[in-house]
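Intended use. Records such as the Phage tail protein entry shown here are meant for training and evaluating sequence-to-structure methods. They are not intended to support clinical decisions.
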Amino acid sequence: DNAANITSKNENLPLFEIALKECISLEISESARNEYSAVIAEWQDINEAKIKSIKVGSGENIYKMQISQPKNDNEAFKKAQAKLNELQKGGLNGRCELIGREIRAGGKLKIKDINMDNYEFSIKSVSHSFNDQAYIISVEFES
């Protein structure tokens, strides 16, 4: 009987655990669907020595976020658009950056030491960047 071999859809997904102290940055937000209608992403342009921003969406309920300097305006737009999509989805959403770890999109994530030790998030995306000092990964997750 093959019925005995059926497992839950998420049971075989890889689980990645990180501790709060491993995070360079951690942002978790709770949102109700359609609470925000626009996002403004701001960053410090080190070449022009001024604050720049880009707005995605329209309306008066605006979520403001700080981002690291993007390579171009399109990258900033994509980050703001992703945040707006995330906020309009509702639930818990987050992002963290940490020094090189093997974490893959599609898996589950547990973050220890944040009073959510038993909470598992779904990993939406993982991006990698390298600089002179370190290998950094950025992880986007949701509930």
